[in-house]
């Protein structure tokens, strides 16, 4: 069933896809772990699942794009989802949250939904962090969760496209899934690309011959905004890693940044990270959970740390904006 809503979303956030568009090479290289690869396992949540949200709305430019999994065969993807729902979550409703600017898959999802009472479509604005579990459950279902809380405790299971495909391959077809697609990007790499890599492969092996030879760099998994920095590249690839970003180490000040305010340049500039707050209040507008970071920051500087509770800082989802 088509239940597309207009203007759904949340206040704040930022459209990184428009500001910092990235292109990935469409030749996908396969990388083996060189040992016995780990395998993907799907564990059905212990709690009864009433809602399954499929996230087809990546909001970070460095995240794995939809085309890698959908391969222009969106109807086939939705057939797989239907089989998974029928076997594991027969009483649940499915919700497809999809980027409203991705014309081809959106149109395919809408056509499919016309004859599918079991699912609803939400064509959403792909502004960051629309795809955060807390924001997604609120936008799609109106359900409030706490930062870090497992949404399955509320009966909500959120799956990305690749996990849907892996569940189908493994649980419905009985095939072993021991590799996944990962997007590689960043100023520290020779090119942006998508790879298919066996689980258990070290990050060092993945990045070998891909990093630019000159200079220092920093490595992040799942994005520089809310992912984590990796300093030990012997760390192994697991299913949770959607993307790897390598940024050149730039610790020089940019001259006259005010004249480049329309350019978003991702760097690791520590000076930038310690910018002085001029109380412009942009953070109040951009915060996706309605916090007032500047107000709290100035209270903190005045030694009024007890005000954290008054300003609901526990609601912060650490989006990194
Ligand atoms: S206060 Fe937290 S949730 Fe709000 S913009 Fe800053 S990091 Fe994001």
What structural keywords apply?
321 residues, alpha/beta, Rossmann fold, Ubiquitin-like (UB roll), 3 domains, four-stranded parallel sheet, 10 helices, 10 strands, binds iron/sulfur cluster
| CATH fold title of the largest domain | Rossmann fold
Low-confidence region ranges: none
**CATH superfamily of the largest domain, please?**
NADH-ubiquinone oxidoreductase 51kDa subunit
Kindly report how far apart the N and C termini lie: 35 Å
For the sheet with most strands, the description reads: 6 strands, mixed
Secondary-structure element order, N to C:
HEEHHEHEHEHEEHEEEHHH
Ligand names: iron/sulfur cluster
Please state the second-level CATH architecture of the largest domain. 3-Layer(aba) Sandwich
* Mean pLDDT over all positions: 88
Describe, in plain words, how this protein is organized in 3D.
The chain has 321 residues and is of the alpha/beta class. It folds into three domains: 16-172, Rossmann fold; 180-248, Phosphatidylinositol 3-kinase Catalytic Subunit, Chain A, domain 1 (Ubiquitin-like (UB roll), Roll); 276-321, no CATH class. Helix content is 25%, strand content 18%. The strands form two sheets. A six-stranded mixed beta sheet has the order 1-7-6-10-8-9, with no helix packed on it. It has a four-stranded parallel beta sheet with strand order 4-3-2-5, with helices on both faces. A hairpin with a 7-residue loop joins strand 6 and strand 7. Helix 3 (74-88) crosses helix 6 (161-172). The longest helix is centred in the N-terminal third of the chain and has 15 residues, at 74-88. The chain starts with 15 loop residues before the first helix and ends in a 20-residue tail after the last helix. The model has no long low-confidence stretch (mean pLDDT 88). The structure holds iron/sulfur cluster. The site of iron/sulfur cluster (SF4) has 13 residues, from helix 9.
